[in-house]
Design goal:
67 residues; three-stranded antiparallel sheet; 0% helix; zinc_ribbon_bacterial; UCP037225; CPXCG motif-containing cysteine-rich protein
């Protein structure tokens, strides 16, 4: 599996398409990235599946998270 990749995602706040860099070398991660169009934080949850060599990416607005 490639450790580094780029992914196009839609901002959950304004709908603007942005490109984010993913680094799977450290395994599953949860982080925030700011939208360059509206400057709102985007919550990114990246789940690395080593067995199937895939990355599952979940994008949401910070206020949409369910605890």
């Amino acid at each position: 599996m490639r450790n580094y990749s780029e992914q196009n995602v839609s901002c959950p706040h304004c709908g603007h398409m942005i490109q984010i860099s993913l680094d799977a070398s450290a395994g599953s991660q949860e982080f925030y990235d700011d939208c360059p169009a509206c400057c709102n934080p985007i919550h990114v949850n990246m789940q690395v599946d080593e067995l199937h060599k895939t990355i599952n990416l979940f994008i949401d607005a910070d206020d949409e998270q369910i605890f």
